[in-house]
Design brief:
seven-stranded mixed β-sheet, alpha/beta
Amino acid sequence: MIFGRSERGKAPVEPVTFKILVAGGFGVGKTTLVGAVSEIRPLRTEERLTEAGRPVDDLSGVPGKHTTTVAMDFGRITLREDLVLYLFGTPGQERFWFMWDELSEGALGAVVLADTRRLEDCFAAVDYFERRSIPFVVGVNCFEGAARYPEDDVRQALDLDDDVPLMLCDARDRESVKEVLIGVVRHAIAYTAAHRQTVTT
C-alpha cells in the first residue's frame, strides 16, 4: 500500500486521518519522538539557543540542548493502510505556548512526554489538556541515567486521573513510540465513546 493509493488490482483505500499532539516540557524529547516514527522527513521549526535568550531559556537539566522548537514539529505515520496519524509537536517553552491553541484544533488526542528528573515541566501540558477535555496519555521518556519510579508514584506526582494511561517509552525508538501512539488512539476512542454516552443518558 502506498499512501493515498492502492496496489494494482485492489480497490483504493481512503485512509482515516487523525491529528495527535506531542507536548511536554522543554528538552523532554518531543522533536526526537516525532522524528523517530515519522515516515516522511519531519518538518521542524527549530532555532539555535542564543545568549539573548538565556534570561528566559531555562537549561537546567538539559545541558546539551542547543536548539528549541519555536512553532511545531510535523510528521506522519501510517499505522494501518486505513489509519494515518498526523503528528504535531508543540513548543515546550512558555514564551511559545500561544501556538498550542492553534495546534490543538481538531486533535483526536495527545501525548504528554515526561522526564522523571523534571516532572514539573509537564504540569502545564497536563493542565492544558485536562481543561480542554482533550484525551491524552503520559509517556515517560526513559532517559539514560534517569531513576525509574513505580507507576503509582509518577501518577501521584502528576495528580493524574485513574483513567489516564501512563506508559514507559524511548522517544528514540520507533517501535516504542508506535506503542504510545496506538495507546493514544485507543484511549481517545474510549474517552469519546464514554463522554458521548454520558451526554445521551
